[in-house]
Amino acid sequence: MKLKFLLAGCAILFAYAGSAQGLVGKLKQKASQAAEKALEKKAEDKTGVKSGSSGEQSGDQSNSSSNSGSRPTNTKGGGLTATPPDVKQNLADAETAYKSGSYGEARYAVQQAMLGVEMEIGQKVLASLPETVSGLPKVAEADQVTSTGYGWAGLTIVREYRNDDKELKATIANNSAWMSAVNMYMANGGYAQTTGGQQNWKQTKVKGHKAIIEYDENSGYKLSVPLGQSSLIVWEGINYASEQEMMSAANTFDIDGIKKKLGEQ
């Protein structure tokens, strides 16, 4: 009997101790929270920054400090000038390098001289193209002469004419892919035409020169005329009313004069 009372008393003591421990834990937690709030309040009073937005503002501050420490953004500079290589100077450099035995430098200078010649030819061809075609004025800022090599390889001359939604683009180039396509049409297609269905391409002539004219509902007309063994002129017309109107636009160009400037036979 005494043992039962003793066990019961121990259980009550343990239960009381457990509840007391839980109560102490809660009191400690509340005291800790109160201390944290007091510290936060003191920090707010000193800095004027609310603790609830500290995470967002610290992120902004870190971004600001990161931006302030980054490299500056370029806001000045006029770019690069499109100046072709000086032909005479490069020829002189080539001769000097050759005499001194610097053959690599001599070869480079000769290539630069040839590139300069090509760019000059391209500019002369561009200047010879009409200023207006079928009432469409040229787009001066679209004029372009580029070369990716030397020896008339990769030289491209571009001029665009535009008014509202109507456009004509003339490209004179040494382009093997275009030449292959035109030669394929001429060699394999002959003068084949169809009387039924949609005629997408056919052979024609522009000022006595053989040509291929194509039509696509999305891109409009495309007229290609070979200018020799490796070069050609391509006109691309958007919103031209008919084949005849496209042909009239192409006839505005001096094809023989262009061939002569390019040295094509």
TrEMBL record:
Source domain of life: Bacteria
Keyword line: Signal
Cleaved signal peptide residues: 1-22
Biased composition regions of type Basic and acidic residues, renumbered to the chain: 37-48
Location of region: Disordered: 34-87
Compositional bias annotation for Low complexity: 51-70
Name assigned to this protein: Lipoprotein
Provenance organism: Chryseosolibacter histidini
